[in-house]
């Protein structure tokens, strides 16, 4: 099935267990705090540049083979992707796994071009059974924090989804939007993948697909709120202003929605009203539309005041 042949929503995940953790919205305050924390941790000798693990690093079993020990050390005790590449060259049956892990390490460190190259290379190489068993034994708690859309980060346990989502983001960061979109086509339905796909589809002008893929979505958490914003923007570009307003209303309905997303929704709502206001400025209908125009701008004024109130509250609590 091609990317454009989905006839319904792609965000409904029916699995009992998924590799995804809770998504979060990046804000300037949080980014500054994380940057300072990472700097201090690095000065004190921390391992922030290493592969992340949910919990403690798994212990290597007794009497492992030489290849397993070499790859284990290169994954969990190393910050240089080149060491993993060297391990893959030394043990060709492990080359695919080593390239994938080197790509995830480069991705964590922000080297998106290299990450894309390594992940693509790793996915093209078949591993031997010993390497696959190693991955099943030791990599199930490896976590990759993937930016599935602008400012939206989701932790993903080591899986097909973590690798392809990281690859897609890396391609997006290097300007390969179409390739980034195609990378996600075969992943199973899930909210994080739907957000990534719809954000890319919108960037490619495929707004009709975004609308179909997000039909019936409700604001249950910040990931769904972010996806509703993508839906609203696609509807606006298609001229479906009433439906776009409904999507934005759903973003604002849940009180615990991220302040950043709420502010985006208020801004988008004002832009829709401005679009409608411009239509009422036809000179032939000036007198007839003047009152409607005034009402439109009064609503915009109230939206701006509401946004300022939210921003003031956000600053008072220092949160996001």
C-alpha termini separation: 39 Å
Overall spatial form: elongated
SS element count, helices: 14
Approximate helicity band: 55-70%
The averaged pLDDT comes out at 87
Structural class: mainly alpha
Strand content range: 5-15%
pLDDT below 50 for ≥5 consecutive residues: which ranges? 36-47
Task: Describe what this molecule looks like in 3D.
- The protein is mainly alpha-helical and 320 residues long.
- It has a domain at 216-320.
- The protein contains 14 helices and four strands.
- Helix 12 runs antiparallel to helix 13 (259-279).
- The chain is elongated.
What does this entry show, briefly?
With 320 residues, this protein is mainly alpha-helical. It has helices at residues 28-43, 66-76, 81-90, 95-108, 112-123, 129-138, 160-173, 177-183, 191-203, 207-213, 222-237, 241-253, 259-279, 286-317, and strands spanning 24-25, 52-53, 142-149, 152-157.
